[in-house]
Design a protein that fits this description.
With about 230 residues, the protein is α/β, with parallel strands linked by helices. Helix content is about 50%, strand content about 10%.
C-alpha cells in the first residue's frame, strides 16, 4: 500500500481573504441620527423608539458625564441634574462645580465636540440635543428636527407631568428659551432654522410611529459615511 503525502496547498489550507491584495469588505457602518426638538414634541421618546427599531444606542444626558470625565471633574458636578427636573443643563452643570474647577465656555464646546464626534465615529447612535446637528456635517448623521404645534405640546406636558395648561405652557416656553440661547451662544445658530436639518417631523400629525417611519425611510438617501 502506497502512502500519499499531502500537498503543500492541502497542508496550508485555503488562502486567507485578502492575501492576494483583494479588497476586504468592511462591516456596514451603523447609522447616526441626531434629534433636535421643540419642548413637548416627544423628541426624547422618538429617540428611544428609533433606537429600539434600529438597534442603536441613545446618547442624551450621558454626554454631560462624558464631558465631566474628559475635563477631570468630580462626578458630583453633574449628579444633581435629574431628568425629571431639567432646568438649564449647561448653567446648572457649570454652577455645580464653580468652586472646584473652572471650565470656560470655549473649553466646554471643545469637550462637547470631541464627545459627539467620538460617538459618531463608533456609529450606531441616536444623539439627543446639545447641538449635535451642528457639530456633525451632512453625511455624518441624519439630522432630525422634531416639532409639534404649541397646543399639542401643552397637552403632552400636562399629561406627562400632571400640571395644568398654564404651568405646562410656562415650562415649554422656558425650556425653549434655554435651548435657543444655548445654540445661539455656542453655535450662533437658530433652533428653528430648517436648513440645519435633513428632515423635520411633526409628531402631532404623524405620531411617534409615523415619525419613526419617515426618519427610517430617509436613512438610505442620507448617504451616511463612516469616518475613521
Amino acid at each position: 500500500m502506497t502512502l500519499r503525502h499531502p500537498t503543500m496547498r492541502e497542508l496550508l489550507g485555503p488562502p486567507l481573504p485578502g492575501w492576494r491584495g483583494e479588497k476586504l469588505e468592511r462591516p456596514a457602518h451603523r447609522p447616526v441620527i441626531t434629534i433636535s426638538r421643540l419642548p413637548g414634541a416627544g423628541g426624547g421618546r422618538l429617540a428611544k423608539e428609533l433606537a429600539r427599531r434600529l438597534d442603536l444606542e441613545v446618547h442624551d444626558r450621558d454626554i454631560i458625564h462624558r464631558i465631566a470625565v474628559q475635563a477631570g471633574l468630580a462626578d458630583r458636578a453633574v449628579s444633581g441634574l435629574e431628568e425629571e427636573q431639567e432646568h438649564s443643563l449647561l448653567t446648572e452643570w457649570l454652577a455645580s462645580f464653580a468652586n472646584e474647577a473652572h471650565l470656560a465656555p470655549y473649553g466646554y464646546l471643545q469637550h462637547l465636540r470631541r464627545v459627539v464626534e467620538g460617538i459618531a465615529r463608533l456609529g450606531g447612535a441616536v444623539i439627543v440635543g446639545r447641538g449635535a446637528h451642528l457639530i456633525l456635517p451632512p453625511g455624518r448623521a441624519l439630522r432630525v428636527f422634531v416639532v409639534a404645534p404649541l397646543q399639542a405640546r401643552v397637552t403632552a406636558v400636562m399629561e406627562r407631568y400632571g400640571v395644568d395648561a398654564r404651568e405646562a405652557e410656562r415650562r415649554i416656553r422656558a425650556k425653549e428659551v434655554e435651548r435657543r440661547a444655548f445654540l445661539q451662544r455656542y453655535f450662533h445658530a437658530d433652533l428653528g432654522d430648517p436648513a440645519t436639518y435633513d428632515i423635520v417631523v411633526n409628531t402631532s400629525r404623524l405620531g411617534l410611529r409615523g415619525a419613526g417611519n419617515a426618519i427610517e425611510a430617509c436613512l438610505p438617501a442620507a448617504r451616511l459615511a463612516a469616518h475613521a
